[in-house]
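Handout, section 4.2: multi-component inputs.
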Amino acid sequence: MVVGEIAEPVDLLVIGAGPGGYVAALRAAELGRDVVVVERGGEEGGLGGACLHVGCIPSKALIEVAQTRRRAEEMAVAGLRVDGASVDLAVFQEWKRSIVDGLAGGVERLLARHEVRTMRGTARFASRDRVAVTMPDGSGRFLEFAQAIIATGSRPAALRELPFDGHRVLSSTEALALDAIPASVAMVGAGYIGLELGIAFAKLGAQVTVIEALDRVLPSIDESLTGPVVRRLDELGIELRLGSRVARLEEEGLIIEGPDGERTVAAERVIVAVGRVPNTEDMGLEAAGLGVDEQGLIAVDQRRLATPRIAAIGDVTAGPALAHKASAEAKVAAEALCGRPAVFEPMAIPVMAFTDPEIATAGLTEAQAREAGLDLAVGSSSFAANGRAATLGERHGFIRAVVDRSTERIVGVQAVGPHASELIAEGTLAVEMVASPEDVLGTIHAHPTLSEGLPASLAQMSSQLGVPDMVTEYAPSARG
Ligand code: FAD
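Output:
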C-alpha cells in the first residue's frame, strides 16, 4: 500500500537486480549516474535474479553432482570402482545455498562499491515518471525517476490443467529445491530446462519420463543437433513421450494422451517446465505509456529503449531468454540512456543446453544460412575422432562450422558433445570477429583438447572452398 504523494527523486531507476538489472546499474554508475535498484526478492529472485537464485547456477550445480555420480559408474570401464555412489540432496542443498549466497554477496558488494543504492520492494509504474514501491513490511513510497530500466525477468509458466501445488506438481524452482530424490519424475516439457533437469534426476537415480506435446525435443534448437541427446536419453533409461499431452493427475500417476492412446506415467513428482512468462503484468506499464505484445514482451529499439526515457532488457524483451543476453543488453541500455552511441546488434548470442551431451550454437546454423541465401561450405568433426574426448570416455557428438563461401567468413558454429558450452566461446569469437577458416586453422590449438574439433571441422572444407593448399589438421581417427 503506497501512502503519501511526496516522491523521492531518482536519477536512474533500475527495476529488478538480475543479470540484466544489476549489470545495467553498474554500467550506469560507472558512467557517473546516480542509480537506485529496486528488487523485490522472494522465491524467484533477489540480487542476481532468477539466474543466480533459481536458474543458471542452481541447475548447473545439480547437473554437476548428478553427472559426477553417473561418471563414477560409467568410468568402471577404465577401472574406477566407486561402490554405491549416491547423492544426499539435503547436503547438496546446503552446498548450493553456499554457492548462491556467496555469489549474491558478490553482487551486493559490487553494487555497493559502485555506490548503487539497492531498495527491497516491488515496483509498479504510477505514471510516466513515477513508480510506487511496496516495501516488504507493506508500507509504500513513490520514486520519481529521470530515466528507468525495466529488468523484471520472468517466472515459470503454469499449465491450467496441472497447476503448481508446491508438493507433487512442481516448477523448476521447486524442483531445484528438493531435498530428497524422488523415486519417479514425470517431466512435462522437453525444452532445455525440462531436459536438463530430467537428465539430472535420472542420473541421480529417479525413474524419469519426459512428456512433450510436440513431435521433437528442444524445439528452439536446430533439430540436426539433437540426435545425440535423444540417443543418450535412451541410454539413461529416460522414457520419452513425444506428441503427448497431460490429461490429469491421479494417485497412481500422471495420465497422458499420446499417439497410442492414454497411458499412466509414474509420477511421485511432476515437474512442469513448459516455458517462462515475462514479469510484465502488474507493473502498471500502461501508466508509463508502455504496452506489451501477446507474449507479454515489451517492444524496444536497437538501443533497448521502449520510450526515450525507459529501457527494457532481458527476459521481458524478445530474443533468447538467457542471462548473458540480458547482461549484454544491459550495457547497451545503460550507455544509450547516458547519451552514448550504443546499439544491440550482436552477430552471435551463444545458445546452450546443458543436456547430455551438451549442445551449444553461435551464429547461423546451416539451415538458417541457407534460408538467408548464403553460398555455404559446411564441415564437421566428430568427437569420436578426438583424443581428449576418448580419454574423457565421452565420444558422442561433433563440432560443425558453417562458412559463407563468397566472403570466406565463418558465420556459424555448432557443438554437440562434452563441454560444448565452453567450446562455443571460440565459435562465438570467430563469428563476432568475422574470422576466416584460415584465422582459426592458423591458430595453434592445445593438444589433446576438445577445442581441436573446430579447426578439424574447418579443415574438411578446403575442397568446398576451392583452397586446396589450406592448412589442414591431421587428427587420427580414434576409430582406427
Ligand atoms: P531475472 O534474472 O529474472 O531477474 C529479474 C529480477 O527482477 C528478479 O530478481 C525479480 O525478483 C525482480 N523483480 C521482478 N518484478 C519486480 C518488481 N515489480 N519490482 C522489483 N523487482 C522485481 N540462462 C543462461 O544464460 N544460462 C543457463 O544455463 C540458464 N539456465 C537456466 C535454468 C533454469 C532452471 C531457469 C529457470 C533459467 C535459466 N536461464 C539460463 C535463464 C536465465 O535465468 C534468465 O534468462 C535470466 O535470469 C534473465 O535475466 P533478467 O535480468 O532478465 O531477469
